[in-house]
Amino acid sequence: MATATEEWKQQAKDIVCDILEIEPEEVTETSLFKEEHGADSLRAIEILAALERNFNITIDQSELGGMVNLDGVYTVVAKAANWN
User: Fold this and answer.
1) Can you tell me the distance from the alpha carbon of 77 to that of 14, in angstroms, rounded to the nearest whole number?
2) What is the dihedral of CA 9, 59, 57, 40, to 10 degrees?
């Protein structure tokens, strides 16, 4: 059975993959959205907005710079949700 942490991380990964139009197996926790997956700034904002809706949190736009890969997304979501 998945832990709560694994569940929300999977949800975040699913959101990223959906917006970037890539398969989940194509992305790793450290693969770079822009350089390796062709993401642009509009896609980054879409990811941020989708994460906010999904997790019912508010993410400051200044956090976008840290959301370069899944590790960064996990850190930003956990911080915004006060899970760290």
Assistant:
1) 14
2) -60
* Residue 73: Cβ within 10 Å count: 24
| Sequence-separated contacts (24+) of 28-35 with Cβ below 8 Å | 28/69, 28/70, 29/69, 29/70, 29/71, 29/74, 30/69, 30/70, 30/71, 31/69, 31/70, 32/68, 32/69, 33/67, 33/68, 33/69, 34/68
pLDDT tens for 27-82 read: 999 999 999 999 999 999 999 999 999 999 999 999 999 999 999 999 999 999 99
